[in-house]
């Protein structure tokens, strides 16, 4: 891998994310809204409205995630936020719901919920760099715990279905499985503070 710089996604870097996601907004016009919005709210929105939800988040004091750049070329993205910013991640029926006793409104409990890597850069270790950078970013902003709910296996190693990440990447980064409510989708956790 060449030299990659990973930055919080601010409004100034928004054009790079748009270039990375492409005109359809990555993952079938999602614009990383899947975990940010309630299903009915999300279903009622078109792609432009979903795009604006993420764009608005770049104007907030806390970035909605990190973007990886190879020079000026955007090559990867990870959504890393407090759990409260991704309410669908916390619903009772999801594999990613909080452990009993954990409060999803706790600002020290963070979620690494989505990834998007440029197709020609998949399989080159970029997800490892994004997980490391996201964990450091979360710690700098008061996280005590970072959680993820990745896939154990995808049909293809470079599958777009790995938008939640791969278990093997999180294991290598020191995350531990704390629950598995859906086969192949464990809730993983790293205590950092």
Can you offer a commentary on this structure?
The chain is α+β, with helices and mostly antiparallel strands and 193 residues long. It has a single domain, classed as Aminopeptidase (3-Layer(aba) Sandwich). 23% of the residues lie in helices and 22% in strands. The chain contains five helices and seven strands; from the N terminus they run E-H-H-H-E-E-E-H-E-H-E-E. The chain has helices at 14-21, 39-43, 47-57, 126-140, 167-172, and strands spanning 5-8, 65-70, 73-82, 109-117, 145-148, 176-179, 187-191. It has a seven-stranded mixed β-sheet with strand order 1-2-3-4-5-7-6, sandwiched between helices. Helix 4 (126-140) links the parallel strand 4 (109-117) and strand 5 (145-148). The radius of gyration is 15 Å and the shape is globular. The mean pLDDT is 91. GO terms for molecular function: acyltransferase activity, transferring groups other than amino-acyl groups. Keywords: Transferase. This is Acetyltransferase (GNAT) family protein. InterPro entries: Acyl_CoA_acyltransferase (IPR016181), GNAT_dom (IPR000182).
């Amino acid at each position: 891998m060449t030299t990659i710089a990973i930055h919080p996604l601010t409004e100034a870097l928004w054009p790079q994310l748009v270039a990375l996601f492409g005109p359809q907004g990555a993952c079938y016009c999602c614009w990383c809204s899947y975990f940010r919005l309630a299903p009915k709210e999300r279903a009622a929105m078109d792609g432009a409205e979903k795009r604006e939800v993420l764009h608005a988040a770049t104007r907030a004091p806390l970035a909605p995630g990190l973007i990886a750049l190879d020079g000026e070329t955007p090559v990867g993205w990870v959504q890393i936020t407090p759990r409260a910013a991704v309410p669908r991640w916390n619903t009772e029926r999801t594999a990613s719901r909080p452990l009993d006793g954990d409060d999803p409104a706790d600002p020290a409990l963070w979620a690494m919920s989505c990834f998007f890597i440029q197709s020609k850069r998949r399989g080159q270790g970029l997800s490892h760099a994004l997980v490391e950078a996201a964990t450091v970013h979360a710690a700098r902003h008061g996280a005590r715990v970072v959680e993820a709910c990745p896939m154990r296996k995808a049909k293809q190693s470079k599958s777009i279905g790995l938008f939640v990440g791969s278990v093997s990447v999180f294991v290598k980064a020191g995350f531990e499985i704390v629950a598995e409510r859906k086969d192949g989708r464990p809730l993983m956790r790293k205590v950092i503070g």
